[in-house]
């Protein structure tokens, strides 16, 4: 398939097993499809599971992380392809460069901030690739409700609903990318 996909996800190792399982399934599907992955570079949580699975299955994964995070040893130790930035802002810009799509898994404030920035950039025409939100275990239901409310209350346009796609299972992610309205 030859695509480069950025994956936003949690660094917390305390989350429910269902999120780790979904991350592993997605990683295996990406490797089988020949997808190269860009991610935040972390060695624990869903980031760690993503990298561990991709590496174990012989796939390619690239970490992008600010230097200060590497200095406190947050970087995944087995990921060979790494880019270190000076700031978080540079990191986020690099996440969206040279990719064919963006997938957001469950995560905390960093994951949500990155996703909302990508949606904003897409709204402004600065990012044009598909945005897929993997709604494992209904995690992103409140976000979907919030985005819908932004539309229904006219804070954003109805057409903006086409900027993102929610899917419930990892197996629907690749089709979501391929079928997305850019």
UniProtKB/TrEMBL annotation:
EC number: 3.2.2.n1
This protein's UniProt keywords: Cytokinin biosynthesis, Hydrolase
Family annotation (SUPFAM superfamilies): MCP/YpsA-like (SSF102405)
Enzyme class, broadest EC rank: hydrolase
A Pfam family this chain is assigned to: Lysine_decarbox
Domain of life: Bacteria
Keyword Cell cycle attached: no
Catalytic function, reaction form: AMP + H2O = D-ribose 5-phosphate + adenine
PANTHER family linked to this entry: LOG FAMILY PROTEIN YJL055W
Similarity field: Belongs to the LOG family.
Protein name listed in UniProt: Cytokinin riboside 5'-monophosphate phosphoribohydrolase
Organism from which the protein derives: Fibrella forsythiae
């Amino acid at each position: 398939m030859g695509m480069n996909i950025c994956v936003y996800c949690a660094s917390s190792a305390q989350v429910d097993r269902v999120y780790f399982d979904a991350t592993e399934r997605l990683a295996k599907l990406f490797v089988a499809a020949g997808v190269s992955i860009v991610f935040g570079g972390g060695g624990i949580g869903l980031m760690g599971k993503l990298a561990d699975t991709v590496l174990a299955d012989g796939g390619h994964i690239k970490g992008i992380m600010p230097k200060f995070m590497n200095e406190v040893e947050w970087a995944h130790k087995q990921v060979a392809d790494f880019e270190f930035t000076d700031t978080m802002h540079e990191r986020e810009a690099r996440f969206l460069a040279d990719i064919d799509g963006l997938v957001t898994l469950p995560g905390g404030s960093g994951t949500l901030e990155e996703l909302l920035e990508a949606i904003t950039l897409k709204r402004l025409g600065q990012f044009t690739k598909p945005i897929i939100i993997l709604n494992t275990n209904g995690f992103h239901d409140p976000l979907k409700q919030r985005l819908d409310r932004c539309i229904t209350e006219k804070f954003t346009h109805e057409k903006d609903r086409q900027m993102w796609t929610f899917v419930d299972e990892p197996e629907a992610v690749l089709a979501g990318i391929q079928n997305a309205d850019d």
